[in-house]
Design goal:
By secondary structure, the chain is of the alpha/beta class. It folds into three domains: 205 residues, Rossmann fold (3-Layer(aba) Sandwich), CATH 3.40.50; 124 residues, Transcription Regulator spoIIAA; 194 residues, Transcription Regulator spoIIAA (2-Layer Sandwich), CATH 3.30.750. 38% of the residues lie in helices and 15% in strands. The chain contains 21 helices and 19 strands. The strands form six sheets. It has a six-stranded mixed beta sheet with strand order 3-2-4-5-6-7. α10 runs parallel beside α11, α14 packs parallel to α15 and α18 packs across α19. The longest helix has 20 residues. It is globular, with a radius of gyration of 24 Å. Bound molecules: iron/sulfur cluster. The site of iron/sulfur cluster has 10 residues, from α9.
Length: 572
């Protein structure tokens, strides 16, 4: 019954505190989708930022839509009503532009499902003048958007703040023009990528390059904001709702990029530089948020590195506001930041050692030692935090059995620190995931470690820590890490596999679908990639050239095989 779907939408709207509501009756109507549930989508600051940017342009109306929850999904299927937006409950297909903000590979099947529920043809080539244009933007566009290429009419690559206005301006130009002409026009502007203007080639069962059609740029530049342009805009929550991971916290972005350049991580390598928001600018937004909530979440890859973070925390403490942070590094934990956290009621903190050995940590360029980690743990528990979450990875390049033993040892030592500081009633939670090589990083050519090896190493850790009081271990399934790894470095053949599994994406169905599309899983996932062979994302410009990434990869290999510390900066 579709009335239940409408009731759900109304209930969610009623629970929201909106700092911004879309104007009605604009000449450009955008349906902005997040390919996951309302809970996950509303926890994503990027989605909220794009919503604000679009609705901030006079004449533009932007409304949200999300992946239905399982119960809603059954209702959509039973009643046959097309997927609709939250604000006006109009069908997504009635808008001029359907834009998705995509951050994670695991959401790709959701995007296909949402297009299907909206009654839109899945593949861009099947859409006609009666259909809206379909756009994908978001973090994924700075890595490898190719598995989605056949679904989208165009991508907006890079930072939305620099793309939204030119996009709307181009959409307004002669809206009667045919679809193809509008897309060809968009392709001429930096930051917009029209995949249908490029023909993929395959050789020996592998991706072998893209051939641009006449007039299409051979290399596409994503939009990167200068520090000054970054400071002109500030991403912050526009809508507060209890139905998010952070409750009713108002979120704001403190910085973008990361100075550390850990070799497995995309955050540092996706941007040419780190940009910070000045504290006075942040404070203006905090004051605005504090009118609607007493809790503020600071979003940054490395909030402890913000040059004025102590000042900001102190101002928050003085105002009696509670604060939380998206991620913290063990070697950058100023006292005022810890105090702000504890005063905000934080019982649990996450500090990711990634691995349990200084040697392997150096090889992945996570530049702090076990001793520094334990010192941070002492300070955290002493300040009053009860529980610690430790994120770690298994299957990294250069990893040996001894590194797994070292991880067990580090967890035990951290637990001892917890007890010494009088928090024996608290918990240490170790979350283990598998290393997945990501595009645009120095490890982009590395293979995934074999599933059996990863499972055996994870089990070893689980067994070793099984009897430790106060310690819990969670291990991610290597099956799903394999799928993430395939999608992260996939090419256009993956879109057809997504199209055949999106209604029932079991692991078995995935493997059959990929095989059916001629993807050799062993070759794609478990074999090192030849740096001389084209990569599916090779036509998208990246801040770090392949030469620099290769140089850094060689440095990692030297570091892993050498007992001596490598102290120089990775990209120097
Ligand atoms: S510190 Fe964290 S966000 Fe920064 S590069 Fe390393 S893992 Fe990525």
């Amino acid at each position: 019954m579709s009335w239940h779907l409408i009731q759900n939408a109304e209930r969610r709207l009623a629970a929201e505190t909106a700092l911004l509501r879309p104007a009605s009756g604009g000449d450009v109507r955008v349906a902005l989708g997040y390919p996951n549930t309302y809970f996950v989508g509303m926890s994503n600051l990027g989605m909220q930022a794009v919503y604000a940017l679009l609705n901030g342009i006079p004449g533009v109306t932007c409304e949200r839509f999300f992946l239905p929850d399982p119960e809603e999904l059954r209702e959509y299927r039973d009643c046959g009503r097309p997927l609709f937006t939250l604000e006006s409950q109009r069908p997504v297909g009635d808008f001029d532009l359907v834009a998705f903000s995509v951050s994670y590979e695991n959401d790709y099947p959701h995007l296909a499902l949402m297009l299907d529920l909206a009654g839109l043809p899945l593949f861009s080539k099947e859409r006609t003048a009666d259909h809206p244009l379909v756009l994908v933007g978001g973090a994924i566009t700075l890595l490898n958007p190719e598995p989605l290429a056949d679904f989208v009419d165009f991508f907006a690559l890079g930072e939305a703040e620099g793309l939204v206005e030119p996009l709307i301006e181009r959409l307004r130009r002669d809206p009667q023009r045919d679809r193809r002409a509008r897309l060809e026009d968009l392709a001429q502007f930096s930051g917009f990528y029209v995949p249908s203007l490029y023909e993929p080639r395959y050789q020996e069962g592998r991706f072998a390059g893209l051939v641009p059609t006449p007039g299409a740029p051979p290399r596409i530049e994503p939009c990167h904001l200068t520090p000054a342009a970054f400071q002109e805009t500030l991403a912050s929550s526009q809508i507060l709702t209890p139905e998010t991971e952070f409750g009713r916290s108002g979120l704001l972005e403190v910085s973008r990029g990361c100075p550390y350049l850990c070799r497995f991580c995309t955050v540092g390598f996706s941007y040419p530089r780190v940009r910070w928001q000045p504290v006075d600018r942040l404070w203006q937004v905090v004051e605005n948020l504090l009118e609607s909530t007493d809790r503020v979440g600071l979003i940054s890859a490395s909030v402890g590195n913000h040059p004025q973070i102590e000042d900001l925390c102190q101002r928050l403490l003085d105002r009696g506001g509670a604060v939380s942070f998206s991620s913290l590094r063990a070697d950058r934990l100023p006292d005022s930041l810890l105090e702000a956290l504890v005063r905000g009621g934080a019982q649990t903190l996450t500090l990711a050692p990634e691995v349990g050995s200084d040697h392997l940590r150096r090889a992945i360029n996570k530049r702090f030692t076990d001793d520094e980690y334990l010192h941070a743990a002492h300070r955290v528990f002493r300040k009053g935090v009860r529980n610690l979450r430790m994120y770690s990875m298994v299957g990294l390049p250069g990893e040996e059995d001894e590194h797994v033993e070292a991880l067990v040892d580090l967890v035990r030592r951290t637990r001892r620190v917890q007890c010494e500081e009088g928090r024996s009633g608290g918990r240490i939670t170790l979350s283990m995931g598998q290393f997945v090589p990501k595009p645009a990083t120095p490890f982009q050519w590395e293979p995934l470690a074999p599933r059996k090896l990863v499972s055996a190493r994870m089990k070893r850790v689980e067994r070793a820590l099984g009897g430790e009081g106060g310690v819990q271990v969670h291990a991610e399934s290597p099956k799903w890490a394999l799928l993430q790894g395939l999608l992260a470095r996939g090419d256009r053949r993956y879109a057809r596999a997504i199209a055949s599994v999106f209604r029932d994406p079991s692991f078995r169905a995935w493997m059959q679908a990929l095989e059916g599309e001629g993807v050799d899983v062993a070759l794609e996932a478990f074999t090192p990639r030849d740096p001389a062979w084209p990569l599916p994302w090779g036509h998208l410009a990246s801040p770090w050239s392949a030469e620099l990434l290769l140089k850094d990869r060689a440095r990692a290999a030297r570091s892993a095989s050498s007992p001596c510390p490598t102290t120089s900066h990775p990209l120097s």
